[in-house]
Amino acid sequence: MTYxxxxxxxxxNCNCEYGCNCQFNALPDKGHCHAVAGIQIDxxxxxxxxxxxxxxxxxxxxPGAIHEGNGEALAFVDSRADDAQxxxxxxxxxxxxxxxxxxxxxxxxxxxxxMHTPVFAPIDFEVDVDGRKGxxxxxxxxxxxxxxxxxxxxGQESRAQIVLHNGFEYSVADIGSASSRTTGGPxxxxxxxxxxxxxxxxxxxxxxxxx
Length: 211
Description:
Layout: E1 4-14, E2 33-46, E3 49-50, E4 55-62, E5 71-78, H1 83-93, H2 104-109, E6 112-115, E7 119-121, E8 124-128, E9 133-138, E10 142-147, E11 149-150, E12 157-158, E13 160-163, E14 172-182, E15 190-204, E16 207-208
Parallel strand pairs: 5-6, 5-7
Antiparallel strand pairs: 1-2, 1-15, 2-3, 2-4, 4-5, 8-9, 9-10, 10-14, 11-12, 13-14, 14-15, 15-16
C-alpha cells in the first residue's frame, strides 16, 4: 500500500437540514441523500507524488440512506494535475491505498453502485472555514455556494460546530448554509439553503490524523 497524507479544506453540501442526521448516526431527513463536495489540498502527497495546491470535487446521489447503498457518483479531478497526480488523486478518492473504511472516500465508494467516468476539468473552488463561506464551480457540471447560517429574526450570522471524536472525515466542522445545482453531466441534483459543512481536513491512509 502506498502511503498518502494531506492537509486541506472542504465544503460539502447535502439536501438535509442544517444538522444533517448522518453526522449523528441517524437516517437522512428527506429519506435520501444527494450531496456535492469540494476539497482544496493545501499540502499533501501520495508516495513520492506531491499534491500541493490541487483540488477535487464530487457529486453523490443515494436513493436512500448512504449505508443502504445503490449510490451514484461523479468525481472531478483538477485539470492542472499531471498524469501521476491524477492517478494518485483517483486512488485516494476511490478508497485505494487506504485502511478499510478509514476515510470518507473508502466508506462512500463501498456504497456506490454506479461510478461514472471521472472528469478532468478546471475546478474553481474557494473556501473559508472560519468564515463559513465558499463556492465551487466546475463549468458545465455543477455550481455550489456556501454562507453562514443566519438568525431568521435578526439576520445575524449564527455559528455552530459538530465535533466527531472518532469520525472518518474531520474532527471539527463548522456548519453553514449551502446551495447546489448541476448544470450538465450524468448526475443531476439541486437543493438550496440546506446543510453546509466547512472543515479543515488532515487525512492519511490510516484515517483522520488527530492531535
